[in-house]
Amino acid sequence: MDPVPVRCLLNSISRYLHLVACQTIRFNPIQTCIGNMVLLLKLLKPLLDEVVDCKIPSDDCLYKGCEDLDSVVNQAREFLEDWSPKLSKLFGVFQCEVLLGKVQTCSLEISRILLQLSQSSPETSSVQSVERCVQEIESFKQEGTLMEHMENALRDQKDDIASLDNNHLESIIQMLGLISNQDLLKESIAVEKERIRSQASKSKEDMEQTEQLIELVLCIREHMLKTEFLEVAKGISIPPYFRCPLSTELMLDPVIVASGQTFDRTSIKKWLDNGLAVCPRTRQVLTHQELIPNYTVKAMIASWLEANRINIAANSCHQHDGGDASSMANNMGSQDFNRTESFRFSLRSSSFTSRSSLETGNGFEKLKINVPASLCGESQSKDLEIFELLSPGQSYTHSRSESVCSVVSSVDYVPSVTHETESILGNHQSSSEMSPKKNSESSSNVNHEHSAAKTYECSVQDLDGSGTMITSHTIKLVEDLKSGSNKVKTAAAAEIRHLTINSIENRVHIGRCGAITPLLSLLYSEEKLTQEHAVTALLNLSISELNKAMIVEAGAIEPLVHVLNTGNDRAKENSAASLFSLSVLQVNRERIGQSNAAIQALVNLLGKGTFRGKKDAASALFNLSITHDNKARIVQAKAVKYLVELLDPDLDMVDKAVALLANLSAVGEGRQAIVREGGIPLLVETVDLGSQRGKENAASVLLQLCLNSPKFCTLVLQEGAIPPLVALSQSGTQRAKEKAQQLLSHFRNQRDARMKKGRS
C-alpha cells in the first residue's frame, strides 16, 4: 500500500522548514514557539521517512494521524505567511502556541502508533528509535509560555476582573514588549481588528477567543492606568483621571465620543481612522464618530499644569475646537514619559525580553532560542543558536509588510529582491508600500553568498552531521544523476533535495558542481517521484542568487513547463514556485515571458490546480506581469477568466487575484477582459468587504477601468460603487484613500460634464 498521507505530511513538513529558514520574524515569543515546532517535527520526520522506505509498517490509524498533523502543519505555514509586525502580538502568540500544542499532540499520537506497529513487526529494527522519540515528545514542555499567563489572567477575569493577578498582567505586558504608550495603543487597535476579522470568518471559536483577548487588553490598559506613574516633571506624576484610557498618555485635547467616554483626540482619532466603530473602553457600538471637546476636563488639566508650574508647548492647551492638536502631541503625547521604578519591572535586567537576542558577525545573524532539556539530550535546557545569512535586504523574507512579493506571494520560498525589482514594484499600482533599497544591496547579498561558498570550500573536510558537504560527495551525486539507474538517479535527486533545504552553502556548492543540467534532464522522467524530487531540488537551488541565472541559462524553462503539464500535484506546485523564484530577476522575467508555453501552463494551473498550486501560479504570474510585455501575454492566455472566479471570498484567493488584476488592468486587453468576464461586481464587492490590501488593489483596477472608458465608468456606477468608495476614502490605507478619492473626483467630473452638456 502506497503511504500517500505520509508522503503528503513529509512534503508539508519540508515546505514548513523551508519557510522557517526564510522567515524574518524577530518577535521573541513567536520565534521561540516556531523553533519548538521545528524541533518536534524534526524528531518525527526520520520515522516517517522510514515508513516511506517500508522499514516501519503502516496502517489506516497512522494515515489518519498523518492527515491530522498535515492539516496542523499547513495551518502553521499559513500563520507564518500571514504574520506581520503590524498584527496583534497577543493574538499572534496565542495562535502560535495553540498550533504548537496541536503539533505536539498529533506528533505524540503518530509516534505511539509507530511504536505499536514497530513492536508488532518482527522485521522492524527501529523500535528503540521510536521509543526514544515517544519519550522526548511526551516530556516536551515549553516553560514560561505567554499562554500560561494569559490563561491564568483570563480565568481570574471570569471570576472578578478587579482581582486579576497583577503578576500575570505584568508578565504579559513585558513579554509582549508593550514598553511604551504607543505600543499599547497599537496593540489595542490590532486586537480590535482581529475581532472584526473573526466576525467576518463567522467562526464561533475564533470570536470567543478574540473577545477574551480584547477583555484582557482592556484589563492591561486599566492596570497600567492604576499602577504606571508617568512623570511630566521630576517628582510630579500625572493623575490617572487626566490620562487617556486608550493610550494612557496625558489628554492634551480631551474629547467625548458617542458612548460618553473621554479620550485624547489624537488617540481616539487613530482608533477611528482604522475603521473601528466601538468604544475602546465600554465596547459599546458608536452611533456616530463626532468628537465633542470636553472643555471641563481640558480646563482641569490646564489648572493642574499651571498649579504645578508645568509648561507644555505654550498655548497648546488652550486651542479652540478644530485647532491642530498635533503640536501638543509632538511635544508630549507621542513621546514615552519617564516611568518610575514602581512600574519598570527591572526591564533591563529581566529574564524576559521583547525581542530576540541578536549577535552579528561575518555576515551572519545568530538567533538564540531556549530549548528544553528533553529535546537537547542534556540534563538542563540550553540556548539553540540558529544562524541566518544576513544582508541589508534580508535575502529571503516572509513578512507581509516587508516582502516585495507580499501582495501575492504565499509560496514557501520568497527570493531576495534586487533594487531593480523594487523600483518597478514601487512605481506600480498594485505593489506593496516599501522604501527603495540602495543599489549596493543586491550585490551585497551576492557577495555574502560568494563569501559563504569560498569559506565553505576551503574549510570543509568531510560530510558531517550538520549536512555540510565535501566536493567528492557532490561529484558522486552529480555522476549518479547523469549515469546511474533510475533508482540511483531518484535517490541522488532526493538527497540533493534534502541537502539544499536549509543550507546556503550547499545550494551554492551543488550549483557550482554541475548538478543543474542533470536535474533538468530528470524533469522529463516518466517516474513521477523522480520528477518531483528533481523539480524540488531545483526550487531549492533557485533560492540562491548565484544559481538563478545559471538555471535559466541551462535551459530550465522548457523542462519546468513540461512538469507543469505532466507532473503530479506536488511537482506542479514546486515547478510554479521555481518559476516564481527565477522570475525575481528582470532578465529571467523576460525570457520566461517570451516562452508563451510557460505562461499558458501557469494559467492552466491557476485555473485547474490544487489550492496550493493556484497560489504558486498566481505568485509566478504576478512576478511576470511586472514586465510590461508579459501583461498582454497573460491576458491572451485567458488568465483573467480564472482570476475573476478567484475573487469569490469563499475561495480564499481574493488578495492574490486582485493584485494580479491590478497589474493586468494597465493594458487595454486586460481591462476589456476584466469587464467581459464579469469582474466589475466582484471588484466593487472587494472594495466593500475585502482586506485592506484587497480594497486598495480593487480600487486601483476600478480606477483604470473608469479613466480609460466612459462605458466602463457607467457600469461601475451601476454596481453601486460610490458608498464603499466613500468609506474607503475615509478609512483605507493611504494609497487606497488616494485611489478612492481619484475615482470619486472622476465621477463628479463626469456628472458635471453631462449636466453642462444637457444645459447647452
UniProtKB/TrEMBL annotation:
ARM repeats lie at residues 514-556, 597-639, 638-679. Residues 422-452 are annotated as: Disordered. Keywords: Coiled coil, Repeat, Transferase, Ubl conjugation pathway. Residues 237-311 form the U-box domain. It holds the Pfam family ARM_PUB. CDD domains: RING-Ubox_PUB. Its EC number is 2.3.2.27. Pathway: Protein modification; protein ubiquitination. The keyword Transferase applies. It catalyses: S-ubiquitinyl-[E2 ubiquitin-conjugating enzyme]-L-cysteine + [acceptor protein]-L-lysine = [E2 ubiquitin-conjugating enzyme]-L-cysteine + N(6)-ubiquitinyl-[acceptor protein]-L-lysine. InterPro entries: ARM_PUB, Armadillo, PUB2-4-like_N, RING-Ubox_PUB, Ubox_domain. It is an enzyme of class 2 (transferase). It comes from the Eukaryota. The keyword Nucleus does not apply. GO terms for biological process: protein ubiquitination. One of its GO terms (molecular function) is ubiquitin protein ligase activity. PANTHER family: U BOX DOMAIN-CONTAINING, U-BOX DOMAIN-CONTAINING PROTEIN 3. Functions as an E3 ubiquitin ligase. This is RING-type E3 ubiquitin transferase. It comes from Arabidopsis suecica (Swedish thale-cress).
